[in-house]
Amino acid sequence: MIHPVSTDLFASKAPLEWAVVGNGILFTAQIPIGADGQVVQGGIEAQTRQTLDNLVHTLEKAGAGVEALTQVLIYVTAREDLATVNKVYAEYVREPYPNRAAIIVSGFAREEMLVEMVAYATVDAEAS
């Protein structure tokens, strides 16, 4: 059985939850949208920061922090953006690092998006 994590993130019109917990594992996908539901402007650095801010917020709402991350899958539309993503990512995540993969994709559902992150974390099933 899964249950959603209540966040203050923009309510998507798509049939999804920003995060769910099942068996003590948090499942979440985060994108670079602000409180207004719009993709943030400013290129890959601004979008990566917003995506990670949304991820940290979601982890906190689930009663955890970045130290609970077990795996992060990073999707970008341009290989050359990975250096910037890595620089910003290193400001949020510390050793011991979660397992990670970086994937280059041709695009996202929202054309203006440059990055998306899928993350898994261990959480206290009772706290979320």
UniProtKB/TrEMBL annotation:
One of its GO terms (molecular function) is deaminase activity. This is RidA family protein. InterPro entries: RutC-like_sf, YjgF/YER057c/UK114. One of its GO terms (cellular component) is cytosol. It comes from the Bacteria. It comes from Halomonas urmiana. PANTHER family: 2-IMINOBUTANOATE/2-IMINOPROPANOATE DEAMINASE RIDA, PROTEIN HMF1-RELATED. The lineage of its organism: Bacteria, Pseudomonadati, Pseudomonadota, Gammaproteobacteria, Oceanospirillales. Belongs to the RutC family. SUPFAM superfamilies: YjgF-like.
